[in-house]
Amino acid sequence: MQIDISEIVSCENREVTEKVHIEQDTFVSRLGEFPITKSAPFDLRIANREGSELLLSGETDLTVSIPCSRCLTEVPTDIHIVIDKKLRMDGTEVVDDEMEETDYLIGLNLDIDKLIYGEILVNWPMKVLCREDCKGICKVCGMNLNKGNCDCQRTELDPRMAAIQDVFNKFKEV
Predict the structure, then answer these.
(1) What angle do CA 143, 148, 154 make, to 5 degrees?
(2) Best exposed site among 40, 120, 134, 153 by fewest CB in 10 Å?
């Protein structure tokens, strides 16, 4: 969704509140593709302060389906997004207070999906678990250990002893 902000930029101290709909149905990053299962429209306030600053503010909640870090079961994860941006207008170029270029403001069009994408990226959880005591998956057969036990050998050998283990395995074959 794009919002034309030419009226707001041209009038000093003008303030507009827009009802914004998030059109993204997936979040795509280097980690993979994650479906956005729930998003609600929200109010985005856009204000021109003294003809030199553009203020963006609003907040919303999204639910994204993210795999558990241990067992890979899909977990609906709530992400609370707070938009609080202060942009300066230097001629036609608009940069934020850290003097970084914005990719969500192209000319006089505000791209809501790119703005929300950046906020999701910043608020992405470090680790998602389906439950605190998640047992994960078996390293040998890949079975979800929360659903039951497998018959795989779980003793982990010291990797420094791998060469000696190979010698013992050769003698067993003879």
Answers:
(1) 60
(2) 153
141: nearest Cα among 133, 149, 132, 130: 149
Q: Is 0.85 topped by the overall pTM? A: no
Residue (of 108, 118, 124, 111) closest to 44 by Cα position: 111
Q: How many domains does the chain have?
A: 2
**For residue 91, pLDDT beyond 60:** no
The whole-number average pLDDT for the span 149-163 is 77
Same domain, residue pair 95 and 142: no
Domain that holds residue 145: 135-174
Token pair for 56: 């963006």
- Could you please report the per-residue DSSP string of 12-24? TT-EEEEEE----
Amino acid at 29: S
Does the residue 145 lie in any domain?
yes
Q: How far is CA 38 from CA 24, 73, 155, in A?
A: 10, 18, 42
38 or 5, higher pLDDT: 38
110 with 153, same domain? no
Q: Which of 78, 85, 103 has its CA nearest to residue 93?
A: 103
Supply angle C-alpha 133, 137, 120, rounded to 5: 70
